[in-house]
Amino acid sequence: MSSGSVSRIGAILKIRGKSELNFELKRHLAPKTVGSLIRSMPLEGNAHMMGNSFAYMETQINIGGEKLRTQFKKGDIAFMAANGSICFFLNDLESSKSMTIIGKITSNIDALNEIKPGDIFSITQTG
Q1: Burial of residue 44, with CB atoms counted within 10 A of its CB: 0-12 exposed, 13-18 middle, 19 or more buried
Q2: pLDDT tens column, 66-103
Q3: How far is CA 48 from the centre of its chain?
Q4: Is the whole-model pTM more than 0.90?
Q5: How big is the CA angle at 48 (ends 44 and 53), to the nearest 5 degrees?
Q6: CA of 31: how far to CAs of 24, 56, 117, in Å?
Q7: N or C terminus: fewer CB in 10 A for the chain?
Q8: pLDDT tens across 7-48, in order?
């Protein structure tokens, strides 16, 4: 892998016309889910907001939950199997929905606060 680790895969979230964030997908957290995401890249879709808790992008990925959790920290990235969404957490949250943690934002986390519904997300692997 380009990031120098089999378990950590570098990626970029571009918010069209606004900013970029670097993040890591961590295969050891959810091997099947992370593998499906990597095979599906590049991904692109509309940004949606869940209050001020997280921003998400729907995908066509259809995979069940893996190592589900309901507590998330600012900067976490999770996959919501119910609608195939990738979620980027703006704040700590105890959620009523169980999701699969898949990674962590590693730079420019404050750019998440600029996201508005309808922005275009683009996700690519680095390297």
Answers
A1: middle
A2: 999 999 999 999 999 999 999 999 999 999 999 999 99
A3: 12
A4: yes
A5: 125
A6: 13, 21, 30
A7: C
A8: 899 999 999 999 999 999 999 999 999 999 999 999 999 999
Q: Tell me the DSSP string of 41-104.
A: -SEEEEEEEETTTEEEEE-S------SEEEEE-TTEEEEETTTTEEEEESS-EEEEEEEEEEEE
Contacts of residue 90, Cβ cutoff 8 Å, sequence gap at least 6: 52, 53, 54, 55, 74, 112, 113
| Topology, domain 8-125 | Cyclophilin (2.40.100)
Task: For residue 51, give both structure tokens.
Answer: 């209050």
The domain limits of the chain are 8-125
Residue 8 in tokens: 């950590």
